[in-house]
């Protein structure tokens, strides 16, 4: 590509990424940056005592900033491109780019098909028409069943984490964007490469959590700091998971079990990693919060993550069921809000039960692969195999899954549906669970091997597994 072509091509691309803060890292950040500039210009207008010329200049600046925001919001070709790696990890940030050349091609195509629009439709109106498809996709991005792999493509955890936390964090005074990036990268690096309890599971749970806020009509009723803490909890709820359950850690007298006195062992460990990460000044996303606010945030994050321990599953459900009729959902207290948040996070954590059959089966096989690996480890240590850790055929798995869906999943989502309007939780979640139960019923008499024995038939497999 010669220099002239490079120069022309560069005029067609608006980039949204940099390691420093010289360029916004996403379209939404660019919009927020422009809106901040507009506020500054407005303040200058209020303070200007010299004359109309200066005011006209400031007004023109405001108009340009608004047009920039409009262009970003209306683009139909907003793409993610991997641009960097973080140290030894294959962790990739996303760059968003607006390809002006493709936009112009689509406008010309639109005009050729609708010649009558040439004289009456402004560029911005046509741009809005052309971008309808993108707007539909954007509005659906928090749909419960949205395909986050398709939407975010690469480095899903970082993308979702940034999308959820940045708009909330930037509302705080002197919010440091670099610390948010560092925090997400550090947490991401602490997730182990496991079949199920990995960073993608965390990203999926974070997506479900945000979606459920919309379904329960809570997104407009909660404070930015409460939502910020909820998303930190969802993103970090399984950080550092070793692929072994609490029962094994306690039974084997693992160091973690000894540290946390056999109580919510993994969940306490996840919390510990979160706050150890925040101790790093470069990762402390709460650095500018007053100490009393941070203490409250810490308490809420710990509470939410601890709630994901399935040992207390029925207690959470029964407690909410007992109190739900006495709650004013239009005027929730902070205690009531976090009680609901815990239910949301718990539902999101087992959210794969609500996915369509193929995806639900995929996630089910992943968690059972971890169970099977634990069973192999237990065998190598001459320990009796834990419950579910010797699953070798579909028929046995089907029976356990039917029980899981009927007695753990549906009761929890029924409580969330009680809060929702128009049975949204039933329509998006419970109906899918019921369908998955039907599918498992069909597999009860299927003796097909899951393939785990063949995959791990090497006697030395356990030695290769890093727990």
From TrEMBL:
Identify the InterPro entries for this entry.
HD/PDEase_dom, PDEase, PDEase_catalytic_dom, PDEase_catalytic_dom_sf, PDEase_CS
Q: Which domain of life is it from?
A: Eukaryota
EC no.? 3.1.4.-
Positions the record marks as coiled coil are: 423-450
Residues engaged in binding AMP: 197-201, 238, 349, 401
GO terms, molecular function:
3',5'-cyclic-nucleotide phosphodiesterase activity; metal ion binding
| UniProt name for this protein | Phosphodiesterase
Please name the CDD domains in this protein's record: HDc
User: Where, in this chain's numbering, is Zn(2+) 1 bound?
Assistant: 201, 237-238, 349
The record's keywords, sorted A to Z, are: Coiled coil, Hydrolase, Metal-binding
Which cofactors does this protein require? a divalent metal cation
List the SUPFAM superfamilies. Answer: HD-domain/PDEase-like (SSF109604)
What does the record give as the active site?
197
- Binding note for cofactor: Binds 2 divalent metal cations per subunit. Site 1 may preferentially bind zinc ions, while site 2 has a preference for magnesium and/or manganese ions.
Q: Could you say which protein family the record assigns here?
A: Belongs to the cyclic nucleotide phosphodiesterase family.
